[in-house]
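Chain A, query sequence.
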Amino acid sequence: MGYWVVGAAGESEGQLTQIVDGGPMALVMGAEGTGLRRLTREVCDALVAIPMCGQIESLNVSVATGVLLFDLQSKRGALGSSAQHEGRI
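Chain A, predicted structure.
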């Protein structure tokens, strides 16, 4: 259907910045603790992880989703257009 299907997997070596192209994307998040199921991983076009530093090993799914969506929007330049829109309100 023209969507790039990207799964979030903590053990992945890929990063969202490597695949952002501006086209339609479906971001797939796994369950907290167990992550993405094997079959779900297999249908994803790419797997990405959030770069982490320090002692933190993982984030809960809502926080991870927010971080990835923010990163995606910033890479696509949507945050600047959002700020312009807010300035008009």
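Strands lie at 4-8, 25-28, 46-48. DSSP finds three helices and three strands in the chain.
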